Amino acid sequence: MEDTKNKQQLTIEINEEIGQGIYSNLAIISHSPSEFVLDFVRIMPGVPKAQVKSRVILTPEHAKRLLNALKDNIVRYEQQFGPIKHIEDGQGGFNPMAFGGPAGQA
Q1: pTM value?
Q2: 3-class SS of residue 59
Q3: Which residues, in sequence order, are CB contacts of 36 under 8 Å at separation 6+?
Q4: Partners of 31 in the beta sheet?
Q5: What is the spatial distance between Cα 54 and Cα 24, in angstroms, rounded to a whole number?
Q6: 92, 65, 28, 102: CA torsion to nearest 10
Q7: 55, 23 Cβ separation under 8 angstroms
Q8: Which whole-number Å values give the CA distances from 5 to 11, 40, 106, in the listed order?
Q9: Contact criterion met (CB below 8 Å) for 34 and 27
């Protein structure tokens, strides 16, 4: 029989501002022996400057858990919606400034 006296329930709350989220189309990841730093950036076409919109700092153990959770969720996403396309800039690498479509004119 399972001991339910020692089990704790975790309640997670989210305020309205955080719940709305932050759009990011570039992530920069750096690390040290004790932490991983994920900087989420929003870049816009024609704007030479981008700003970090959110920073998440994780222990290496939690970074690996995040990696595994992302892998699992991507598999489930692709099973439901089909493969996620890999966008490249034609040179074999990702170009975050290549938004695609015709260039805008004023």
Answers
A1: 0.71
A2: coil
A3: 29, 30, 57, 58, 59, 60, 62, 63
A4: 36
A5: 9
A6: 50
A7: no
A8: 17, 41, 67
A9: no
**Does pLDDT of 12 surpass 60?**
yes
- Give the tokens for residue 36: 């991983």
Tokens found for residue 101 = 């479509």
Q: What are phi and psi of 66, to 5 degrees?
A: -65, -45
Cβ–Cβ under 8 Å, residues 54 and 28: no
What gap in Å lies between CA 105 and CA 85, rounded to an integer?
28
Question: Residue 23 in 3-state DSSP?
Answer: coil
Q: Over 80: is that where the pLDDT of 67 sits?
A: yes
64 in Cβ contact with 56 (< 8 Å)? no
